[in-house]
Amino acid sequence: MNTTVKKRSAARNVANVCTYCGKPLGQDKTNDHIPPQSLFEKRFWRLVPTVPSCTSCNQGASKDDEYFKRVVLSEEVSDSPLAAEVIDSFMRNLDREESRGYREDFKNSLTPITKRDETGTEYPTAEYEIDLQRIGNVIFRTVKGLLWIETGTRLPEDAGIVMAPYINLKFLDQHTLDIFAHILLAEITSKKNTEVVIPDVFEYWWSQLYLGGILASTWVMRFYKNAYFICQFDPKKQNLLQQFGTAIDSNLIAISD
What we know:
Elements: H1 3-12, E1 29-33, E2 50-54, H2 55-59, H3 62-76, H4 84-93, H5 100-108, E3 110-116, E4 122-128, H6 132-151, E5 160-165, H7 174-189, E6 195-198, E7 202-211, E8 214-223, E9 227-234, H8 237-249, E10 254-255
Antiparallel strand pairs: 1-2, 3-4, 5-9, 5-10, 6-7, 7-8, 8-9
Helix pairs in contact: 3-6
């Protein structure tokens, strides 16, 4: 883990307010892993930074974490050997009795379709619509945690975050796209400017700016060297709703609650 990130995380953990809801913390204070440690092999858990959290906020996101593993890890990064243990564990858990509701949820999301193979023969199969909001919930939580680690700032009550997977980048603004292009150029030229939390597993970049004297920022996260998520944080959620309303309504961009 990047030593600077580790030190910042440790320093921020002395705070006695929840990173997410702002509730004063007492005996219910916990350390929440950012991103969720269940997205990584157990050998990496000690490298994942943490933020102070109340018990309710810490325990309230597990279903979205599982959804993230099903959609992102088992499909987008399934070729990574560093994700194999997590994916195998997830698939085994699907067979457990406790996962019956989760299996039903997946079944209900399927839509029957017909496809053609290489010979032109049609065959029945199914596809499912990805709930980008549930993926976004994991990313939003991570942005909130990283914002706290980097700046000691909680997300203001009327602020918002939008998130797009890399395939939907065209719906973001030019400033955000310029940052993403700069990141990719740095990768090509080996001039990286990144915070590596777990090498080849999780890393992030961020750029801050001030809107009307209030901190705003752009975040790019990469899981297992392949799955990119780009986020834009604005101190006024209403600005994001006006700018990205059509894309949000079309499930192309997700926005934080």
